[in-house]
Structure formats: C-alpha cells, structure tokens
C-alpha cells in the first residue's frame, strides 16, 4: 500500500495526535459548547457522530444531514476540522457538500466488503484523510482488506483505528482490546498510522487512562477520544465520555516514553 506519513498529512501539528469530540452531535448548543472548550484547550481535529450505527433499533441513531451546517459553522468559528463516520456514498457526498473532509469507516461497516467498496468508489479521486476502524470481530484480514480497498481508490492519507473487538463475556472492557491484532497490523504495515480509541474499548471513564497509556507504551500514533460538555446527559455512550477539561487532565497524566539513546 502507498501511504503518506502522518507527519506529512498537513492536518496534525503535534504528535501523538489527538482527535476529540462527542460521540454524537446532539444540539447546536451541545456542539458549540463542547467544541468551544476543546478548541480553547488546543484540540484541532474534532470528532462528532452524525449518522450513528447503533446495534439495536429505537435508540438515538444520529441527527443526519441536519447537523452538517452546524458543523460547517463551527469549523469556521473555532478554526477546527471535523472528522465524521461515513457508512455510504451518500454520507460522503453530504459531508463534502458541507465542507467536512476527514472521514472514518466504522467497525460495523468494515466487516462488509460491499459497503467498504462502495465508500471507496465514492472517495476515488479525492485527497482526503480516511481512517478505518477495526471490524467488530477479531479478523485482521478483514481490517487489512478494508484498508486496501480505500487505498486502491487513491487515498494515501490512510490510518487505522483500534476500537477493540466484540465479545460475549469480557468483564472489564466493552470491546476487548486484543492488542496483538493492532500490533500485527503495525508490524506488517509500519507506515499506516495507528490510532487508539480508548473510549469504545473501555466503555467507562475510569479505564480510559490505563488503556491510553498502554497504547502509548505500544507506540500507537495517536488517539480518538470521546468528549462531551456534560457526559452524564449525553444521548449516546454517556458512561465513557469525558468533559473537555477532564480529557485535558488525562492527557497530561500520560507518561510519554523517553526515547532510547
Ligand atoms: C463511534 O465512533 O461513535 C462508533 C460508533 O464507533 P464504532 O464503529 O467503533 O462502534
Ligand atoms: Mn460512541
């Protein structure tokens, strides 16, 4: 695969990189206050779920296109860029129309080669950063296959997100980290930036720090972490979201490795 080094992507000015923001875009006020706080703390790339792949029906499935103009306004207001999940060519087209140009493919889409290929086709000819989350099941080949499909559409600013794997009876994690899978990906494709998603691995706030520290110790390139102005009132994933200030404190507690001389 032909991959551009993360330091040459032109959108991250620090390393390891951080993407932070709410699980879901909920209201103009929730988004403005969350992004405003994050921007004040120095975060430049904001996540926000617009189309939400919920496992079961009758839960909040995202606002859809109605949220896109809010995002567009806030990108200008706070000089930040948004990253959103896309699960279809329609999502890609809608996002681009509203000036959103960083995408990720969710764990439930990565499992489906038809879906991934359709998204890849809709990205052909564009130079946009795209991250591919691991599939929900611990299948490295499926993850690599999705990365290859996106790369073969010409996307060179391509990254991988480790968000853990579905399990039946893990007593600790929401999604088991099974670290050997992302590490094997890193061994085989050292040029693909590898980002950790401690929020969806942990499922609860108190695990985010130890999971992030583990990722840092294992040489991950960065993080995507959920942050909400009022986590307890969040419409999705409330137990794992951190207030922007708490996220900032957590990052300060991470012990960076001293490079060997
Ligand atoms: C998300 O990032 O909000 C999300 C739904 O993640 P995943 O695809 O990892 O479940
Ligand atoms: Mn979430």
TrEMBL record:
Its EC number is 5.4.99.5. It comes from Cecembia calidifontis. One of its GO terms (molecular function) is chorismate mutase activity. This is chorismate mutase. It is an enzyme of class 5 (isomerase). Keywords: Transferase. GO terms for biological process: chorismate metabolic process.
């Amino acid at each position: 695969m032909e991959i551009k080094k993360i330091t040459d992507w032109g959108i991250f000015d620090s390393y390891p990189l951080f993407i932070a923001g709410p699980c879901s875009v909920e209201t103009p006020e929730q988004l403005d206050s969350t992004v405003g706080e994050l921007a004040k703390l120095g975060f430049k790339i904001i996540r926000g779920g617009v189309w939400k792949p919920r496992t079961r029906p009758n839960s909040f499935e995202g606002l859809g296109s109605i949220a896109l103009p809010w995002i567009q306004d806030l990108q200008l207001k706070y000089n930040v860029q948004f990253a959103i999940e896309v699960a279809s060519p329609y999502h890609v087209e809608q996002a681009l129309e509203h000036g959103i140009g960083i995408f990720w493919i969710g764990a439930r889409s990565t499992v489906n080669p038809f879906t991934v290929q359709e998204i890849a086709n809709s990205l052909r000819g564009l130079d946009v950063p795209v991250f591919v989350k691991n599939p929900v099941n611990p299948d490295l080949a499926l993850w690599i296959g999705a990365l290859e499909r996106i790369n073969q559409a010409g996307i060179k600013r391509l990254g991988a997100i480790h968000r853990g794997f579905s399990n039946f009876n893990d007593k600790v994690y929401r999604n088991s980290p099974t670290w050997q899978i992302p590490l094997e990906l890193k061994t085989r494709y050292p040029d693909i930036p590898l980002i950790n998603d401690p929020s969806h691995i942990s499922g609860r706030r108190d695990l985010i720090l130890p999971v992030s520290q583990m990722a840092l110790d294992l040489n991950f390139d960065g993080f995507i972490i959920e942050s909400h102005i009022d986590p307890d009132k969040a419409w999705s994933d409330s137990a794992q979201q951190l207030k922007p200030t708490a996220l900032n404190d957590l990052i300060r507690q991470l012990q960076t490795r001293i490079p060997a001389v």
